Amino acid sequence: MSVGLQVVSVSQPRCISLMKNHVCNEQKKTALLVDGHNLLYASFFGMPDRIKTPDGRAVHGVYGFVACLLRMIRLFVPEVVAVCFDAEQATFRHKLFAEYKANRALPTDEANPFTQYADIIHALEFLEIPFIEEGGFEADDLIGSLALRLADSMHIYVFSMDQDMLQLVNGNISVYSRSRGKGRIYDGREVVKKYGVSPIQFVDYRVLVGDPSDNIAGVPGIGPKTAVSLLHRFGSLRGIYENTQLLSPRISSALLEHYDEAMNNLNLLTIRTDVYLDVSVDDLYLNDKNKILSMNVKYVMGELGLFPKVPYQGSLPGVR
Predict the structure, then answer these.
(1) How far apart are CA 274 and CA 289, in angstroms?
(2) H or E element at residue 46
(3) CATH 3.40.50.1010 domain residues, the chain
(4) What are the start and end residues of each CATH 1.10.150.20 domain in the chain?
(5) What is the pTM of this model?
(6) Class of the CATH domain delimited by 2-20+27-194+272-303
(7) Rounded to an integer, what is the distance from CA 60 to the centroid of its chain?
(8) Burial of 17 (0-12, 13-18, 19+ CB in 10 A)
């Protein structure tokens, strides 16, 4: 397991109030778990590549990554932060399905987000923010496993634009996602509002409709409306398969014909929450939260030698 960590003291819990209808909880500390792989992609392809070092090297992905991370720390004011990355080697999902994410082939030149990965790791080391990678697993599985460990004593905010994370949502775990510059916090009500199913049904919903981003096909002929209707009626994928005799011949035939694929896809799409991680919760506390809260992205980029240096003001400057 690749981990960048530090052992630090425990700070006092903070109360946060984020968005309309979001409950402020003074009783629990807050943890922020970041899908680093997802944020790297989003930053690299979402920021203009004219952001460069003085010698002309593109660092737009680093800039976007650091800016977004600092923005989230200001938003949630967490005591605990961990950034999780996918393993470099194939994961257990590739063994289940050789074509898993085969539609995501990356170029080998500067158009590859991972050309800026080393600088992002340096940024996390500078900020003393823990980062974790575990062989054979994806960031989703590390986040799911950490969230399960932390949720009894903290409220967890998971940052990812991967909708698969919505299966983790419960009373102690929320998912924060950004799209077109706007943030959205998903609790159970928000998941139902957007997809028509509860978080506990979300994996079954994905199995039925498919997940093109992961190169996973759904059950042919079953779209979102039909999937929602089936899950409302029978509760789960298992409940649907136990009652195929009650369905129309077309839907029943499609489900039975693709049973093996559906069960395999269920394994592919389910986030693991049992990954052993050799890391203590104490290692995940921020070392100097107030200092991080006072930093902006240009200061961090300057300290990394990627931008001209700017003075540290010790106040709360803007993100950009």
Answers:
(1) 29
(2) helix 36-46
(3) 2-20+27-194+272-303
(4) 195-269
(5) 0.85
(6) alpha beta
(7) 20
(8) exposed
